[in-house]
Write a structure and sequence with these properties.
The protein has 321 residues and is an alpha/beta fold. The protein is 46% helix and 16% strand. The strands form two sheets. Strands 1-2-10-7-8-9 form a six-stranded mixed β-sheet, sandwiched between helices. A four-stranded parallel β-sheet has the order 5-4-3-6, sandwiched between helices.
């Protein structure tokens, strides 16, 4: 069966649809020292999605999908299953549109993200510890209440919304040579890659996932989406057990490489962002910087997407100490 990839026109339409809700986040430049006195520092760009209204890029896809629903479906309300950031995005988008939202979250969800959903007006249901647990409960609730499911990544409207981040990167840095994107379920990298390739950018696109959750790496190696038995990492937003069929198809078509970074490197990147850029990033958002710092590129213009900054004060203090 042929998979239809998200078109540039879909992403451009999403950019118009979300422009009064999602922030056009800054792309700032930061110098990276590699410890050699004989060489000048390298400058990398940081796309600061941690500055979105609910602290992560997820508002782009969530609002785009909910705003695209028919009036009848939208007014009945929406539901999603999420480890945190997507749930907050759905709650915020629903509040902006004046409709109810339910978010099924894992029993292990960080308190700061559960509180965020409730602060934005969403109803929280805690269910199990895996994405399968959450999805099963969400599907049951959707059927019982007549709600529309807004999936975290596996939907063309979600991907198109996420792709608006890619358009903004190209607007700010037309000659970008490499873009590093964190990989959870694959919605963000699918959208960013579709935007870059749609605009005929030749930039190298690199996905970054935790060493303890290499679902996209395993899937690319197998040639089809692979389901892992378990995932584990401090990057709680990057822990789906497998990518979606649609997101995988985008990565397979457009992405040059997917690399992994361990938790020590991710924690180090959180600390580096604080000390060198004064950016508050959660581990999931800092994974891209961990990959860049592992092998600092000396040629061209590199951009790392900081996908989110929702982290408790206690955890953040521990990482930056």
């Amino acid at each position: 069966m042929t998979t239809t990839l998200v078109a540039l026109s879909d992403i451009e339409a999403a950019a118009v649809r979300i422009r009064d809700v999602a922030v056009r986040t800054p792309l700032i430049e930061v110098a990276v020292e590699d410890g050699r006195r004989s060489t000048p520092p390298v400058t990398i760009g940081l796309k600061c999605e941690n500055l979105q209204p609910m602290g992560a890029f997820k508002i782009r896809g969530a609002y785009n999908m909910i705003a695209s629903l028919s009036p009848d479906l939208r007014s009945a309300g929406v539901i999603t299953y999420s480890s945190g950031n997507h749930g907050q995005a759905v709650a915020l988008a629903a509040r902006r549109l004046g409709i109810p939202a339910v978010v099924v979250m894992p029993e292990t969800a960080p308190g700061v993200k559960v509180d965020g959903v409730r602060r934005h007006g969403g109803e929280v249901i805690l269910a199990g510890t895996t994405s399968v647990d959450r999805r099963t409960r969400a599907e049951a609730e959707a059927s019982a209440r007549g709600l529309t499911i807004v999936p975290p990544f596996e939907h063309p409207w979600i991907i198109a919304g996420a792709g608006t981040c890619g358009l903004e990167i190209l607007d700010a840095q037309p000659d970008v040579s490499a873009v590093y994107v964190p990989v959870g379920g694959g919605g963000l990298i699918a959208g960013v890659a579709a935007a870059l390739r749609g605009r005929r950018s030749t930039a190298r696109i690199v996905g970054v996932e935790p060493a303890g959750a290499p679902k996209m790496s395993a899937s690319l190696g197998a040639g089809h989406p692979v389901r892992l038995e378990r995932t584990s990492s401090i990057a709680d937003g990057l822990l789906p057990l497998q990518p979606g069929d649609l997101t995988f198809a985008h990565v397979q078509a457009f992405v040059d490489d997917v690399v992994t970074v361990d938790d020590e490197a991710i924690a180090g990147a959180v600390r580096w962002l604080f000390r060198e850029a004064r950016i508050v990033a959660e581990p999931s958002g800092a994974a891209t910087v961990a990959a860049v710092l592992k092998s600092v590129p000396r040629d061209g213009r590199t951009v790392a997407v900081i996908s989110g900054g929702n982290i408790s004060a206690e955890d953040y203090a521990r990482y930056i100490a």
